[in-house]
Amino acid sequence: MGVSSLSDGVVTLSPLCLDDLDAHLAGEDDQLVRWLNGGPSNRADTEEYIRGCMELWAAKGPHRAFGIHVVGHQDLVGTMDVRFGTEELPDDQVNLAYGLYPRWRGRGLATRAVHLACRFAASEGATRALIRAEPENAPSIAVARRSGFRYVRRSQDEDGTWYDHYVRDL
């Protein structure tokens, strides 16, 4: 797997695993469904997704999914995705996506997780990180800005969804 965990003393990122399944399902709310998941999760699909993430970790694949944990708590508090080599990005850039469960929002944890994910991406050779957020997703945009990302452009996906792009050199 290469990485067992990354921590700043407050937040720890560790590769998403099956032990995170129940906490993820319990933590999902309407905001995560809308902004991150694209639809409500179910146990079978989420288990399949996590197994796929574990395989990608083992193979050093292009998608590395982390569980976000708070030091001193066993609970999963959210997820952080680091995607290398997406169609719209050069090979040395990564796309980050994150979500926290409701009870953990508003504490600066997502910002800390983004900093850790950037540190990880740089250690894997990335030189720039991208965060895409729908313009109405003010909390995600605030995390991007607090994490040192700057707005660069707006784009529209094939399905008509608009995204603001924020980048940070690593």
From TrEMBL:
What keywords appear on the UniProt entry? Acyltransferase, Transferase
Could you say which EC number(s) this protein's record lists? 2.3.-.-
Name of a matching Pfam family: Acetyltransf_3
N-acetyltransferase domain residues: 11-168
Name the PROSITE patterns for this protein: GNAT
InterPro entries assigned to the protein according to its UniProt record, in alphabetical order: Acyl_CoA_acyltransferase, GNAT_dom, Ribosomal_N-acetyltransferase
Gene3D superfamilies to which the protein is assigned, alphabetical? 3.40.630.30
Protein origin, superkingdom? Bacteria
Q: Report the GO molecular function annotations.
A: acyltransferase activity
Supply the name of the protein: GNAT family N-acetyltransferase
Organism equals Nonomuraea salmonea
